[in-house]
Design brief:
Two copies of one chain form a homodimer.
Chain A lengths: L3 H13 L15 H16 L3 E4 L5 E5 L10 E6 L12 H17 L7 E6 L12 H6 L5 H5 L9 H8 L14 E7 L4 H5 L3 E7 L1 E10 L16 H18 L5 E3 L3 E4 L9 E10 L2 H22 L2 E10 L2 E2 L2 H14 L3 E6 L4 H5 L5 E6 L15 H18 L3
Parallel strand pairs in A: 3-4, 3-5, 5-14, 6-13
Antiparallel strand pairs in A: 1-2, 2-4, 6-12, 6-14, 7-10, 7-11, 8-10, 9-10
The complex binds N-(aminocarbonyl)-beta-alanine (URP) (2 copies).
């Protein structure tokens, strides 16, 4: 079994890094706050006595090559340590620290796997500062050119490559330099399913498709008091119609499609000026690729209608697009078997969130283990998982690693 | 007649003060940019050889006390030189500079009015940085305590009193120190009526009521990918419903009510996070007080419904509330008579925008003169009035001043 005190203690400590004077945890990718989190993770890797490597997109790897074990394809564990704005402490960090904990536990126990084990902290999984999300693992798996990724401009105008250089995490290794023979990621569910059903472990067998777009509506500023409603080209009203359209559509269908408008900005953003511009994001997801395409097409058609109705100009920029992913059946079965041996209730499930596992699945058999999220809350400071569930998940990971760490 | 070159030249010069590197004119009340505009106005007042006074709320007065004229109640002219964000150059400045031009013209001509004439540049008419709008004239007319006004917090967190001190316009005079016997304000229409009807001069007989509110919707942040639609407490969606409600209501009624949501902010404003908070402004206007109350009540009822439907908490803060104002009938008739003498087409009309005249009307008979706005555009860099109309308006003002500048 893992050292639960060490794991839970580190989770709490990492959760304090990047917490502002206002109490909010904000550790956006490649920011000063995230540098401190990275430094702490690297310090723990070194304390554990394993090799540290950083690749060109800033992914950090702790690599344990047990003495006497052949240098064959490693087993990879991992997740991310960047966060959203006003985040909880579990999302991503749990998987990274549990991966480290597995290596430390195995090392201390004297047990020797048949292959090296690597634990990764992938760059910019959240996608909040730089799009797309899961960027570090996507680049690592060859899905996005590293130089293109490094040139990405963030919501604050910063360039990712410059930021990685600034914080000292512009590594030398070429992404993909370790080719794992399997990848397994432990994560909090971030949704309500396990808790609602009273189940302890999720064996994640697939992950829904993700479509991110940024929509810019260009209307015309005019005086709020003098401009008749019929003469307005109100970018804010056009944006509001899109939000209610997406909600009404999601509610009136019988599908699991979710649609979210998370970002919104008005210009000039003045009380007595009709908005000349509204910029907002649309996050569309569905486990079924055909349905996701239908939703995208419906949005596109509605945007065209709104542009006509409101006499505004609408531009759309794609920020991320990932098809649904199926995880490796054998690893999913290993998870189920481990849960059964440990006496945990377990169900197969779909991940609603995006994860690095979905990218690494392009290069190696991959799967995920979920533990329950209290109230289904995530991307929120109230995000929480019971300590017993966190420890149970880590021990599940230990068991699965024991099964997977074969030559 | 006025010196049209001087008037138009000054209007252009003032219009360059506060223009940023991005080409946008932003001269928000009591900002560094507005200080430069104030300094320019004061320099022109001194050049004209008239007394300058600043009161505690930062209103600037140029006071001409012609030699030999008894110190009886002055005639007051004026408007404002603060602007919205990304403004045109005419709104407010035209009235202030035309007032100055009238005094300069009369002085130069050797004509002697029967009373002093004052020209005012009132503080924070736009209300964009500090609410309410028309703050300087409201305080001047005794409608708002000066110390309460000075304590107002702006959209940038600044305190008005500190800002006025910082820019050196925290004057000594007590607001109301000049009690005018009449007030007349020349302004661009900012709306489409005069142009559409091909009329040169508006004799403004009333001004619609203004209701400004700031609405804060508190929902709950959660993960965009994992949170079923039915479990969301989406502050952004609640805000969007309010925008479409206001528009649908305005469109389906047969009244001149206008409703505008000019400001909108989402928190945490991240692409994959359901908004936990949305803060927006509502600007409601109607020439009829009873109808304005009905609109406010309808909004209040709808906010309560949205709060229930969306399981969000909604707080409302009043930022400004002014009843419709009727201007002085005799001055309106003087405007009509002057237009007729000059051979201008003229119509009585309602002002859609708020103006300092509406506040000064509390302390003295007041009215306004409008000139056409091309395309009805204002609060927009494309705001424009033909030079011939600007000059015609200034000469109209000269004539009305000649009629009003009596002991
Ligand atoms: N796990 C997680 O929250 N990932 C962020 C990317 C996304 O799903 O929006
Ligand atoms: N004239 C003018 O634009 N005033 C600003 C106050 C308002 O009407 O919103």
């Amino acid at each position: 079994s893992v050292n639960d005190e060490r794991l839970l203690g580190r989770l709490q400590r990492l959760g304090e890094i990047g917490r502002g004077a206002d109490g909010r945890l904000v550790r956006l990718a490649a920011s000063d706050a995230e540098k401190l989190g990275r430094d702490q993770f690297v310090a723990w890797l070194k304390e554990t006595g394993i090799e540290v490597a950083v690749d060109r997109i800033g992914n950090i790897f702790g690599i344990w090559r047990p003495e006497g074990v052949a240098d064959n394809a490693p087993l990879m564990l991992g997740s991310h340590i960047d966060t959203v704005i006003d985040a909880g402490i579990y999302d991503g960090c749990y998987g990274v620290l549990a991966g480290l904990e597995i290596i430390a536990t195995l090392k201390e126990s004297g047990l020797r796997p048949d292959c090296p084990i690597a634990v990764a902290a992938f760059t910019n999984e959240e996608g909040v500062r730089f799009a797309p999300d899961m960027m570090g693992s996507l680049v690592y798996a060859g899905g996005l050119d590293v130089d293109v990724a490094l040139a990405t401009t963030g919501i604050d105008g910063a360039i990712l490559g410059n930021e990685l250089r600034r914080i000292g995490y512009d590594g030398d290794m070429e992404p993909g330099f370790i080719q794992p023979h399997a990848y397994i990621e432990l994560h909090i569910e971030q949704g309500p399913v396990l808790e609602r059903e009273g189940i302890q472990i999720g064996a994640v067998e697939n992950l829904q498709g993700i479509s991110w777009q940024r929509v810019t509506v260009n209307g015309d500023a005019n005086h709020a008091g003098t401009t008749p409603i019929s003469m307005r080209r109100d970018a804010g009203h056009a944006a509001a119609r899109v939000i209610t359209f997406l909600r009404d559509r999601a509610l009136s269908s019988n599908t699991p499609t979710v649609a979210t408008v998370g970002c919104m900005t008005f210009e000039p953003n003045a009380i007595n000026v009709i908005p000349s511009r509204a910029v907002f994001t649309v996050d569309l997801r569905d486990p079924d690729e055909d349905r996701l395409r239908e939703e995208e097409a419906a949005l596109e058609a509605f945007l065209a209608k709104v542009a006509r109705d409101e006499d505004v100009l609408i531009e759309v920029e794609r920020l991320a697009r990932f098809e649904p992913v199926k995880f490796d059946r054998q690893i999913v079965e290993l998870v189920e078997a481990a849960a059964s041996r440990r006496g945990h209730t377990c169900r197969r499930m779909t991940s609603g969130a995006g994860h690095d596992a979905q990218m690494i699945a392009r290069m190696a058999p991959s799967a995920m283990i979920f533990v329950p999220s209290i109230g289904g809350v995530s991307h929120n400071p109230k995000e929480k998982t019971h300590d017993t569930d966190l420890v149970a998940g880590a021990n599940m990971l230990l068991d699965v690693v024991a099964s997977l760490a074969k030559a």
